[in-house]
Amino acid sequence: MDFYVTWLLLCSTGSNLRPEYNGLPSIYSLQALQHTQVLLIKKDNLLRLYQQCAKYETIGRLMAELVAHRATEIAMSLASEKPEERYRNLLKKQPDLFQQVPQKFIANFLGMTPERLAVFEGGWPFRSDLNLS
Q: Which InterPro entries does this one have (predicted)?
C-alpha cells in the first residue's frame, strides 16, 4: 500500500518481478479516493512496445526498480521504525496527505489503529515542532 497524490505514476509490475507469477494477474489493486484517470496497457502490448523501442524497455525496467525499492522502503519502515517515527517521516514527506486522505487509511499504512494515529495528531507535538522546510 502506498499513497499517490495529485499525479500518479503507478505500474503494476508485481506479476513481472517474480518469474513464477508470469501470466497471472497482479496482486496489487488501485483504490481512488478522488476523481481519477487511469491508463491501462495490456501486457502483450507492453512487451511489443519494449521490443520496438529499447528506451521503453529501459523505462519499464526503471519503473519496476522503483516499485521494488518503494516496497522495500515500506517493509523496512514497518520492521525497524517506531510508530512515532513512521508518523513523523510521512508528515515530513507528504504533509498534504493528512488533509486529503481519511485517517483510517493513513493509520493502516503506518501500521497502527486510527485511535493511535489520533493520539499522534492531537497529543504529540510533532506537527508544531517539525521543521518541514
A: RmlC-like_jellyroll (IPR014710)
Q: Please indicate, yes or no, whether residues 91 and 53 belong to a single structural domain of this protein.
A: no
User: Burial code of 30-44, b = ≥16 C-beta within 10 A, e = fewer?
Assistant: eeeeeeeeeeeeeee
Q: How far apart are CA 106 and CA 90, in angstroms?
A: 9
Give the separation between CA 113 and CA 120, rounded to whole angstroms: 11
Residues 69 and 123 in one domain: no
**Comparing 3-7, 57-61, 70-74, which segment has the lowest mean pLDDT?**
3-7
Instruction: Please count the structural domains in the chain.
Output: 2
Match 489503529 to its residue by C-alpha cell: 113
On whether both 62 and 113 belong to a single domain, the answer is: no
Higher confidence at residue 120 or residue 103? 103
| Residue 90, domain extent | 82-133
Burial-class residue 29 by CB neighbours within 10 Å (0-12, 13-18, 19+): exposed
What does the pLDDT look like over 6-20, one tens digit per residue? 544 555 544 445 555
